[in-house]
Amino acid sequence: MKLIFFLFISALSAETIFEYNELDDSLTTSINSDFFSQDKASYCRDRSNPSDIIWSEDFSNPILDSQTWSYSVGNAFVSGTTTVYGWGNNEKQYYRDQKYSETYTNDNLFIEDGFLKIQPMNKKYRSFEYTSARINTNGKKTFSFPSKITFCFKVPRGTGLWPAFWLLPTAIQEWPSGGEIDIMEAKGRITNIVSSALHYGNSPTDKSFIVREIAVPPSVKFQEKFHSITLEWRENSLKFFLDNETEPYLSISPLSSDLVKYQYPFNEKFYLIINLAIGGLFDDNKLDPSALCSDKECSNHYNPDSRRFLIDWIEYAHLLSLIHI
Hints:
The chain has 325 residues and is mainly beta. The protein has strands spanning 26-30, 53-57, 70-71, 76-79, 82-85, 93-95, 109-112, 115-118, 130-132, 134-136, 147-154, 161-169, 180-186, 193-203, 206-215, 227-234, 237-242, 250-252, 270-278, 309-318.
């Protein structure tokens, strides 16, 4: 059966072959905030003043706003005349399209109890063993500086699950010359660490990246509690913050690391992607099929939400404060 793939970029895609084991500029920052001494369901940062908000998503409607979001479909993308399978990372999932309904999207992505839920499934679809979902704002909503972007989220548990929210440039160009901003990525087998990354370079063979991992205490695992990551975005500056922390765990400028060797790409317009990949190179192709859901209700797991990527809210706001410069 012929598969139909949506073309969003003309270069190697953002989750493209990270080669983390070769990274020289990868550090883990441990954060043990005083806030963590309180047992709460969510440690996400305080919401912005409504007058400062440019756009927000609280997932209060039963389906996604089609004026903001599109679905990526399939297991591949097109680069020039070449179809690149596995999204360039040997990923195993087929991303499913929206089912057209006023109250429902599909078994892999739905809104429930005010949360966006992306559910990985061990259920054959066409010629693929696994399905998931990936959405983006390409051609509908763009993001740039000066601003701050915050995600309040909880990641799924299970070896081979790869949740992420990240940004790609709206201009069509060869990856990663336009840059890539991975605000958050996580490995489903690791409970208390997530990471952020920047990708840049002249071509897929002349490139580099910066990664920073954040570790939190076991009592507030990313898989059990909601946390937030905020990107503060200024001209020639990107800073990443966990929850209500006032010190960034990652800060870059055109003079950072080997960015000085390349043209700084992060002063342009970008669009947003949210997805949950299955398998792939990010975690050395590790995958436990039993970690996935077997049906819409995820009835094979006692706590279905523990296997889903949950997002409570997203904010895109004016950056008025100079406190973090």
